[in-house]
Amino acid sequence: MKKIALITGATSGIGKAIAETLAQNAYNLILTGRRKELLDSMKEELGVKFKCDVLTLNFDIRNRERTEAIIDGVPEQWKKISVLVNNAGLAAGLHPIHEGLVDDWEQMIDTNVKGLLYITRKVAPLMIAAGSGHIINISSIAAKEVYENGSVYCATKHAVDALTKGMRIDLLKYNIKVTSIAPGMVDTEFSTVRFKGDKTRADKVYEGLVPLSAADIAETIWFVLSRPAHVNINDLLIMPTAQANATVTHRENQ
Ligand code: NDP
Ligand code: 8X3
Prior knowledge:
The protein is of the alpha/beta class. 43% of the residues lie in helices and 18% in strands.
């Protein structure tokens, strides 16, 4: 029987690439996101290409009641979740602390921290009941360093790292692995979302260098998932070769 993975934020970027990689590696998938039409087309595509069964769950992860009701309502045959990838997340804006938009802060905190907690609170007991599981939290270089104008996004990702460490302790005796994957720049919708649709500004983030692709992260996650039962990768920082840390990059013609 195929294993089941639940991936949050699977409609684009890293989450979408993880879904493709896991479908290719014989998982059935529970995919979540707000954009229903994208979830529907992924279900169709992955079903045809990989004979993968897909359950789509269309909700905003910030909505606690809906998130809880939807996970509670997952059909019994989908409840044996082996892998949870807490991926849904975003950065909104890039401002010094005294000019930041409070709505942006709330969106980041509610999605990156509280949404991740709502999902984990519901899925971890299912893994405990099943006797095993693997939770992968998508963290960031922003969890390791703080950069100018990014304090709230960085704070949410520092929180993800703290939660990862805490989960690992609490879930240790239940045979549940917990991993944090911390990427540097990955070319996804991330910067377009951060700059609220300003594609020109978003493209500048990646100008003159080769960023990571979402597929690079998905491949890394497959490596993490395919280790033997006694091996856990706790924390993996993965950067483009042209990026030394959160702020130092090497760009062509600069
Ligand atoms: P994308 O914008 O391409 O993908 C973000 C995903 O999160 C989408 O599927 C989106 O789905 C989902 N999402 C966002 N908000 C919500 C919400 N309120 N409810 C439900 N789903 C939501 O960006 P990435 O793929 O780059 O981002 C994925 C993760 O990787 C994030 O946690 C991000 O912080 C992290 N990351 C990204 C890096 C990068 O450089 N790209 C580097 C390091 C970490 P929908 O819009 O359909 O709801
Ligand atoms: C996304 C990468 O450097 O924009 O987490 O914070 S960064």
